[in-house]
Design brief:
- 86% of the residues lie in helices and 0% in strands.
- It is built from ten helices and no strands.
- It is globular, with a radius of gyration of 19 Å.
Length: 255
């Protein structure tokens, strides 16, 4: 298993797309701190990168890599290796690669320019978001053999969490404004890992105006400490649940 992870990890690190992704993250991060007078503005710029760019690249790259590695996966299946180990090795190899790219590209500038709790939180959340969308990529790729459909599902997942979710929540709030639905909105927030990541960081930054309505409600009901703990646990669930479902399907899939 460790050998498979090492092969996948080293193979991905040589990929030009991953190298370009790392360089782009580094350029955006360094320029965000260099062009702004205070670090808070730079942190907000990097926050947008974490919430939109990191999920998109993670889910797209992982989905395409899995489809392109179909022959390698079939070769592994012909060996006396359990399917669970193969799928877990692929997941760990891809996750480690995307997390390494994020840490080198955005983590180093954050540690140098914002070596405080906010900077550390952004690094942790960025790593979690990378792993979450790799897990979602595994789910989208196992749902269909058609590469175009799989990539389309991955893009739709990103669009839903990055753009559509908040719009749907605001629409519900507007339509049901006459009813006391604030507590229900706290539960709805758990349905979006990007919203949870935004809350994790902005609760530390204390920029409630940037959190969106769902984030403001979350803060009002749970407070900083409890809100961070709950959102962190929910983010971990967003890693485990999609990967577990994809693993179940992979075990029973006829390749």
């Amino acid at each position: 298993m460790n050998r498979i992870i090492k092969i996948i990890f080293l193979d991905i690190l040589k990929n030009k797309i991953v190298l370009a992704y790392t360089l782009i993250l580094a350029m955006l991060s360094w320029s965000s701190f260099g062009l702004e007078d205070n670090s808070a503005k730079g942190l907000l710029t990097i926050l947008n990168v974490i919430l939109f760019t990191v999920p998109l690249v993670s889910i797209l790259f992982a989905t395409i890599y899995l489809y392109n590695s179909s022959e390698f996966i079939e070769l592994l299946l012909s060996q006396p290796v359990k399917r669970k180990k193969i799928w877990l090795s692929l997941f760990l190899g891809l996750s480690m690669s995307m997390v390494s790219a994020f840490l080198i590209g955005a983590g180093i500038p954050l540690l140098i320019n914002a070596p405080d709790s906010v900077g550390i939180m952004m690094i942790v959340v960025g790593c979690l978001i990378s792993v979450i969308f790799v897990a979602l990529a595994f789910l989208s790729s196992i749902l269909t053999r058609d590469k175009a459909k799989g990539i389309g599902i991955a893009i739709m997942i990103w669009l839903y969490f990055a753009l559509l979710f908040d719009g749907m929540v605001l629409f519900l709030l507007f339509q049901l404004s006459d009813y006391p639905i604030e507590k229900a909105m706290v539960a709805v927030t758990a349905l979006s890992p990007i919203d949870l990541a935004r809350i994790q960081i902005l609760l530390n930054l204390d920029v409630s105006a940037m959190m969106g309505y769902t984030g403001a409600i979350f803060k009002d009901f749970f407070g900083t400490s409890l809100g961070l703990i709950m959102s962190f646990l929910l983010l971990c669930l967003w890693v485990v649940v999609p990967f577990y479902i994809s693993l179940k399907k992979f075990k029973n899939k006829d390749l």
